[in-house]
Automatic annotation (TrEMBL):
Keywords, in A-Z order: ATP-binding, Cell membrane, Coiled coil, Kinase, Membrane, Nucleotide-binding, Phosphoprotein, Transferase, Transmembrane, Transmembrane helix, Two-component regulatory system
Location of the protein in the cell: Cell membrane
TM regions (residue ranges): 17-39, 306-325
Catalytic activity: ATP + protein L-histidine = ADP + protein N-phospho-L-histidine
InterPro entries: Bact_2-comp_sensor_kinase, dCache_1, HAMP_dom, HATPase_C_sf, HATPase_dom, His_kinase_dom, Sig_transdc_His_kin_internal
Claim: Cell membrane is one of the keywords in the record: yes
Top-level EC class as recorded in UniProt: transferase
EC number in record: 2.7.13.3
Name used for this protein in its record: histidine kinase
Amino acid sequence: MWTNYRRLTSPSFRSKVFLASFICIGIPVLLTLSIYSYLTRDAVEEQAMQNAKKELDLTEENVGRVIDDVINASNFVQIDSELNTILKNKSNLTLNEVDNQSYTEYLEDRQVRKTIENITLLGEKSYVTILLKNGQYYTNYSTGQFDPNSFYQEQWFKELSSLNGFESYWSGVEPTMLTYERIQSPYQLSVARTLRDSNSGIYGYVIVTLLETKIRNILNNQNPSEEIMLVDDQNQILSHKDPELIGEQATILADIPLTDSSQIAEWNGKKYVITHKSLTFNDWRLVSVLPYKAATSNINSIFSEVFLLLAVSFAIFFVILAYLMNRITKPLRHLDKVVKKVQTGDLSVRANVNSHDEIGQFSHSLNHMLDRVNTMIDEVNQTHKRKRKAELAMLQAQINPHFLFNVLNSIRMKVFRFGDKESAGMIQSLSKLLRWTIDNKEDQITLFDEISLMKDYVNLMNMRQKNKVELEINVTDEAYQQLVPRFLLQPLIENSIIHGLNQGSGQIIITADIHNEVLQLSIRDNGEGISPQQLAKLNEELRSSTTTKRSNKGFSSIGMANVYERLQLSYRVSPEMNIESKLKVGTMITIKIPLGGEGHVQSHVS
């Protein structure tokens, strides 16, 4: 903690230079950018309002096109002379006369229905209803789910009698009259007109109904963050991309009076760009509410590019300064790293500073000092090595292996002269084993020499114990010539004698042959065998080369693991080793060594 505090209170040379540069240049840059941002804010807001107005004009054009189709449909019914003649004649008939109409009158009814069906094909799909004063009606939709006479019960229907000429009455938003349309479009908008004769008497009504989703789809195609709504003169929402708000009051319009066509106002703690436009056919309005951030994001991106260009121009100085400071302080930082590595004990590191100034001279002196220290350490190490070699030579001279061999041979000859041939043979076997054990010149010997050693080893073991072990050899001449690690078979035969035969009498068979460029070597005994559980555990330990936990009873896995590990280290191609055993039958160890893979590791076994 104290170190961190000192770093903060005592900055480096580079930090001091950068701090001074920031105070002299960075602060003026920040002040300049702040003033620039303040001066361009008004321009950003003006551009945002203009963009919002253009988008609303486009929306108004699309909505007006839909409304025009509805008005054109009502206009056609009202001004078509042939259609009006038929409707006037129909309105003068009673319902009984309508039911008993002639074929000509039937054709006239068919023409009326076909006409109102055709007038809605070119524009947006709308539903046309013609009501006559005698109760007869014509529609372009199925009346099975809605009775057109229900229009007479609407509150707004009473207002139609006060209309003159081509005046229209807009009913506002109301639930969709057709049941099968309510799922997709729960609301509708209707425009109604009167049909008058030459004496201005009302003989019927025409009502054109538009599904609100037609307008909602237009509003949904705008900016996702922009909220556009269609409202009436009472600020009731007639269409909105959120259907749940339709029919509700636009609260934002109640709190914010609309003055100009586009303005920026604050509502519920947030700034909005509010734009409105009145429709030409009635007192409805389109109102756009756009969050200020979303409205200015595109414009701000343009100013941000200018901002960035200005900032980069000022930042060039810092880049140049950083480059120069890096060039100046780089040798110092390099020397600091070298000194820290030397403190950890790494004396092989050197300072690579080739300048001719004071830093270069210091670097040269540091390298010379490290060279001198390394030279002194090498001298001390060489002295210790020579001393150790002398001590080792003295120790080896105390017991010369040849001296041991000569003594054993002398003892063997003396015993042999006294007629104890068995003891002489035992001494001879021991002498041979001792010579191969001490001699470390050869790591690998022929299988012939290895089996000869095992014969001597079994002889010695038979002389030690009461019960004799019979050793049977079945090896081909080609297999005899193959090289194997020295004393490869000794741990396996020892395990067979001690644990397999339990130091009793028995038979050990060594078999070796070559099949498909693989030396197959097996050692089999007719001893007690191994239980399946212990055998599985032994094979598992053998594969994982685990030697930490060994059983003190039964088959010894220490020697087995040693043999397996020596095989893996002695050949480039990994040999295989497997143990098979049955209780009361015996155990067989199989080794498979691929030929041509010798010489992986030349380890010396002593």
